[in-house]
């Protein structure tokens, strides 16, 4: 093994050196390509030479010795490189690229995304069965066959290594993983936010969940599909845990954080307009909880918050505010206003019947307090009424 390993170590050092002279502007993509290539090299040599897992420990130690000051070659990271290459062979990369192009080309809707995600899983599962029977040739054909530009422009190349590590750890489902990659690229979210959204099952809440809304009946098909896809059920209010002796200042600081998280949970495209917006009707004043404008939908969105389960009369109240927004806020270039009611639970059949007969676009969805918060701490955390009050300070 000594002669073979020394030759292998030399090849790895050469590959690292080549990658490091590339343009700084492409540093992330170069690093990802390097990590994928090193992973392929590890797989190939382990397969051809019969080396066990200990070669990774040895390689990490020697790379640190041969390349002092260079980071990224810990045992843990080298194992992730191997996993990165194992789970993304060349054929899988190309199939992911095809699916990625289809997602970008299609009109965004739950049905199209679910179809693409399902097809990816079927294709990759079939390939995995073949992969389990194959060996990794020492000539490194996958590396030689991969066009660098093909990798740079792939969905894999658009996500940082730290994002990939989270996805490798937390999302074994390849179709969901592709969706989260697109989500991270589109919204520019950090690795911590990505981890939080995976933990809160964002994919299931946005792509899989059955939405209670009348959009398909009252909106044109393309707007209906996108509006339905856009909303989540449930929304997750991920509260920060209070300190043991939470004083007023501590609660206020957390409340400000919760408002920010609420806006983040709504998603990209929502521009905050007002809280408790006053409307004068017949000499009386009425106040809409939250008013947003959605840039892509080109319409106002009225959000009403309820600290209880949905009641049929809530639909009438929301419809009232949507009518006011259409009359007093909507301009010539805007589309019809959409209403969204967030409540603490609902009977879906009751909600669906309550929306029938209204010509305004409205949806009803749940919200939940973070499931990670122990019951004994929930009493010390701000409630939904406090979130509503928090918007009054904006």
UniProtKB/TrEMBL annotation:
Q: Which residues form the YhcG N-terminal domain?
A: 12-89, 131-205
Q: Which residues form the YhcG PDDEXK nuclease domain?
A: 230-382
Q: Which InterPro entries match?
A: PD-DEXK-like_domain, tRNA_endonuc-like_dom_sf, YhcG_C, YhcG_N
Q: Which domain of life is it from?
A: Bacteria
Cross-referenced PANTHER family, in alphabetical order?
NUCLEASE YHCG-RELATED, UNCHARACTERIZED PROTEIN YHCG-RELATED
Name the record gives this protein: DUF1016 family protein
Q: Give the originating organism.
A: Algoriphagus oliviformis
């Amino acid at each position: 093994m000594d002669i073979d390993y020394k030759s292998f170590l030399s090849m790895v050092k050469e590959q690292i050196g080549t990658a490091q002279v590339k343009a700084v502007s492409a540093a992330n993509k170069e690093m990802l390509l390097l990590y994928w290539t090193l992973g392929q090299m590890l797989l190939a040599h382990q397969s051809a030479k019969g080396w066990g897992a200990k070669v990774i420990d040895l390689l990490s130690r020697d790379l640190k010795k041969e390349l002092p000051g260079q980071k990224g070659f810990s045992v843990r990271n080298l194992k992730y490189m191997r996993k990165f290459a194992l789970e993304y062979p060349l054929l899988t990369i190309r199939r992911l690229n095809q699916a990625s192009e289809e997602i970008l080309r299609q009109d965004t809707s739950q049905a199209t995304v679910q179809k693409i995600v399902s097809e990816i899983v079927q294709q990759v599962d079939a390939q995995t069965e073949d992969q389990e029977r194959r060996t990794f040739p020492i000539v490194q054909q996958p590396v030689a066959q991969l066009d660098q530009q093909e990798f740079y422009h792939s969905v894999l190349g658009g996500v940082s290594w730290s994002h990939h590590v989270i996805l490798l750890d937390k999302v074994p489902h390849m179709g969901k993983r592709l969706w989260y990659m697109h989500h991270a690229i589109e919204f520019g979210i950090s690795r911590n936010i990505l981890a939080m959204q995976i933990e809160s099952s964002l994919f299931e809440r946005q792509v899989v969940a059955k939405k209670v809304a009348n959009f398909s009946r009252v909106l044109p098909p393309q707007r209906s599909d996108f509006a339905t896809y856009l909303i989540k059920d449930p929304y997750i209010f991920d509260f920060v845990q209070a300190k043991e002796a939470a004083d007023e200042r501590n609660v206020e600081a957390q409340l400000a954080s919760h408002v920010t998280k609420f806006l983040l949970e709504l998603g990209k495209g929502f521009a905050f307009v007002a809280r408790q917006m006053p409307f004068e009707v017949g000499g009386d004043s009425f106040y809409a909880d939250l008013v947003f404008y959605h840039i892509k939908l080109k319409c106002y969105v009225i959000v009403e918050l309820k600290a209880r389960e949905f009641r049929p009369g809530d639909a009438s109240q929301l419809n009232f505010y949507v009518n006011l927004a259409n009359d007093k806020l909507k301009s010539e270039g805007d589309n019809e206003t959409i209403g969204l009611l967030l409540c603490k639970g609902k009977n879906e059949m009751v909600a669906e019947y309550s929306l029938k007969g209204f010509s305004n676009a409205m949806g009803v969805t749940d919200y939940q307090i973070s499931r990670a918060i122990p019951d004994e701490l929930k009493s010390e955390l701000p409630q939904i009424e406090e979130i509503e009050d928090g918007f009054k300070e904006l």
